[in-house]
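GTPase Era
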Amino acid sequence: KSGFVAVVGRPNVGKSTLMNRLVGEKVAIMSPKPQTTRHNIRGIINNENSQMIVIDTPGLHKPASKLGDYMVQSALNTLQDADAILYLVEPEKRIGPGDRYIMELLEKTETPIILVINKIDMSNSAELEICFQQYDETGLFQSIIPISATLGENINQLIRTIEAYL
Ligand code: GDP
Ligand code: MG
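Structure:
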């Protein structure tokens, strides 16, 4: 199995930390004339049963200009082309405006979305449960996986979940 995995989320939720943990091999050359989405390729995850190409998805923030509009459209194209989306959040008590804005955009794609609640090492199980339920109620997510990118907790479960969508 192989496919493209797009990673999205607010600044500081741990996207780079997770990608660095997952990606074992950097991509040197894809094509002499790359497609737009290929510019965002961060690396390949090689597993026993699968190979996943990880794409960074910057630009999912409120556009303040025409250039911002263009970046949002470009990000939406990336999401639409991916086989699965990893949407990273932190275990917060309330879904904030930054995440609400991203979720409005995520609603526009038909790509399966895996919600990744990162930094579970920073919260207790009651807090995590509150966070889990708020996101679950939106009905936007095919799966919800709590992880700690820095401690490496639940990373194998995350990979198995992604594989189901490739
Ligand atoms: P990005 O902006 O989404 O790429 O976030 P980064 O990967 O740069 O991480 C932002 C900060 O969160 C850094 O200080 C990380 O060390 C920290 N961080 C990332 N993952 C975890 C985690 O699982 N637990 C904790 N406690 N901190 C984390
Ligand atoms: Mg980053």
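The helical segments are 15-22, 66-81, 97-106, 125-137, 155-163.
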